[in-house]
Design brief:
2 domains; Rossmann fold; 243 residues; six-stranded parallel β-sheet; alpha/beta; two-stranded parallel sheet
Length: 243
């Protein structure tokens, strides 16, 4: 059992698993390790490649540190007119009042539900805003480049929350809770749910903070190496077939 965070390890311990078990490992004597997050490994590696292989900042005519990256895809947001409208109202107010680009790679679910679930007036504001940049779903390198270069992330995605942290970007969480409690505990993420005022307040808060700390709660970027090493060591003490 390889856990990406200290909170994950503590959860296993509370469930009765013992972190100091010795090999040979079995279902009754499992190995339990706090190893870090392999997604962090990925982000470090592909983040560097994205800078070389993506030209999305140039294509969108945006500058590093000068835009907000937003993503919305969860059905409890997209399929609920009140929630979806509140989120887009916050986006359009932030874009207009702060004169900052909001880049929204549009998930197919969101694209389908926008015209149906937000008012014509709000839709027209979005369509006519020079600061609102709605783009097709972004490629892996493009979304990585956007995450790496944005000023603030606003998302209902669990994965994007973590990637924001990996690239040292504050994140406004468009959900009533988060599975990545470390981000909120460290003060680099704020839960705003689908509440227009809370979303705007969260943006204003992060805009006014001079320094945010991003301690290595997701490991050192070498989780995969650690996992492979432990598997090899366990196989060498096992009576079963060698790897």
């Amino acid at each position: 059992m390889f856990t990406p965070t200290r909170a994950g390890l503590n959860n296993l311990i509370r469930e009765g698993f013992k972190p100091h078990n010795k090999p040979p490992y079995t279902t009754d004597n499992p190995g339990v390790f706090h190893c870090g997050d392999v997604m962090y490994d990925n982000s470090l590696y592909f983040g560097e490649l994205a800078e070389k292989r993506s030209d999305i900042l140039k294509r969108l005519n945006i500058i590093s540190g000068g835009f907000v990256l937003a993503t919305i895809h969860r059905d409890n947001n997209t399929d609920n007119p009140e929630r979806l409208s509140a989120i887009f109202e916050a986006f359009i107010q932030i874009a207009g009042d702060k004169e900052i680009d909001v880049v929204l790679p549009l998930h197919p679910r969101t694209s389908k539900m926008m015209k149906q679930n937000i008012s014509g007036e709000l839709y027209d504001k979005i369509e006519n805003s020079s600061f609102f940049k709605i783009i097709p779903p972004a490629s892996f390198f493009d979304i990585t480049a956007l995450e790496r270069n944005c000023k603030i992330v606003m998302t209902d995605s669990g994965g994007v929350q973590k990637e924001a942290y990996f690239f040292k970007k504050p994140v406004v969480i468009l959900r009533p809770e988060t599975e990545w409690v470390e981000i909120v505990e460290n003060g680099t993420g704020l839960i705003a749910d689908a509440d227009t005022e809370k979303i705007i307040e969260a943006y204003n808060y992060f805009e006014g903070v001079e320094t945010l700390n991003f301690p290595p709660v997701f490991g050192d970027g070498k989780a995969a190496e650690f996992i492979c090493g432990e598997i090899v060591k366990a196989s060498e003490t096992s009576s079963g077939p060698r790897l």
